[in-house]
Amino acid sequence: MNQIYFTVRWREELVASSDLGTLVFELTMGKYHVYFPDRSQWKKSVPPWAANLWQHYYTQCSQWCAANKIPITITPDALVYEEKKQE
Questions:
Q1: Measured between alpha carbons, how far is 13 from 27 in angstroms, rounded to an integer?
Q2: In the chain, where the domains are located
Q3: Residue 85: CB partners within 8 Å, gap ≥ 6?
Q4: Cα separation values, 50 from 11, 31, 87, Å
Q5: Looking at residue 49, what DSSP letter applies?
Q6: Tell me, what's the pLDDT at 30?
Q7: pLDDT in tens, 40-49
């Protein structure tokens, strides 16, 4: 599976970029905390290319959070969306 690269963005967002595309997750600022969507919210929110990649993204995001000492919580109302490249 493709490597996912994580970048914190000032608008309280965690950007996850891979060869397949870019997804954006909710990240509180001040005291960082990642809110990761549960499987149901994931299926409703992500594009078709990411529909079956919940476990991969969660594992990679959890590892990134652990390395950066940032808590991560799975929640049914977490924000996730695809960021389209501007042409």
A1: 5
A2: 5-82
A3: 22
A4: 23, 28, 22
A5: G
A6: 85
A7: 999 999 999 9
CB 11 within 8 A of CB 49: no
For 29-85, write each residue's pLDDT tens digit: 889 999 999 999 999 999 999 999 999 999 999 999 999 999 999 999 999 999 887
Q: What pLDDT was estimated at residue 86?
A: 63
Query: Which residue has tokens 């299926």?
Result: 43
Round to the nearest angstrom and report the end-to-end CA distance of the chain.
27
Beta partners for 5? 17
Token digits of residue 16: 């996850």
Locate 74 and state its tokens.
Answer: 């799975």
For residue 27, give both structure tokens: 């990240």
